[in-house]
Amino acid sequence: MFWFGNDIGVDLGTASVLVYVKGRGIVLKEPSVVAMEKDTGSIISIGEDARRMLGRTPGNIIATRPLREGVIADYDVTEKMLRYFISKACGRSFFFRPRIMVCIPSGVTGVEERAVRQAALQAGARQAHLIEEPLAAALGAGLEISEPNGSMVIDIGGGTTDVAVLSLGGIVTSASLRVGGDKFDEAIVRFIRREFNLMIGERTAEELKINIGTAYPPGKTENTTMEIRGRDLVSGLPKTVSVTSRQTYDAMQETVEAVVGAVKEVLEKTPPELSADIINKGIVMTGGGSLLNGLDTLISKETELPCYVADDPLSCVAQGTGKALSMIGVLPANNKLAKKVV
User: Fold this and answer.
1) What domains are defined for the chain?
2) Are 218 and 204 in contact (CB under 8 A)?
3) Which residues lie below 8 Å from residue 43, measured CB to CB, with a gap of 6+?
4) Which of 3, 176, 257, 284 has its CA 20 to 30 A from that of 242?
5) Beta strand pairing status for 283-286 and 151-156?
6) pTM (predicted TM-score)
């Protein structure tokens, strides 16, 4: 049951939604997938149950992701999904409605911002606040960003990659790419289709990425292989092929280079005093995409700076949104943090 003054932080991600409740920590982590009837539009399932339906539904059911590339693609479905997750995490009583902090990519437009804020209010928020993802990620990773020292964070989510240098509680310079874990999966699907004449689904591509995928082959001790199954584009029949980790590198190379390019771009725009701080502190990586094998090693090699993955990269943004609610007004440099709708 909601109680007065309840604070909720929501990592509204393209791939998954995490809900942080003040005093209880992260209470919910589910895929941001909704299954609904095609004709009526009524919701059948949300979250993990819906994710299992992806690519496996009959004609009258659609399993869809209402968020694409870090922003809302289907407003009505997103609002229903958000309402469902909040009520599941905290109970169904809306007598005392909560304050909600939702994270957004640093490169969103004003229209996309308003859509997220309005969705949170429609889902039952008393107040809706927004925070940029790199700021939330830095807070969740435990970086001391309120001091006049430079900290650099790379947040690689399902739909976006946010790179930012932070100081005095605000973002000094940043870059936001519509590239993330989903783009890695799509690159693998395209590569398998081109190399093997085999059509595979996004879930199979994701399993390949997680199990044997690499962004830096020299850092992988052995060239591991994995068998995958799909539909042969020539015969139309089911087929099994073996894929190596080296091949996953070839598949994702262009996408990975886009991430590295964004990191270099931000470093080039960073003031020299903050650059000196980053040399001492290194670069912190958060988000599910940071777990790609060898990505931290590659970025460290390309930038000649220490680079490491946060302790719990998947939940950093969610924990940061929760912490930020208690810091509203403390971080005046971050304008978005001050924005709210009552």
Assistant:
1) 7-136+317-341 (3.30.420.40), 146-179+257-311 (3.30.420.40), 181-252 (3.90.640.10)
2) no
3) 34, 35, 36, 77, 80, 84
4) 257
5) parallel
6) 0.88
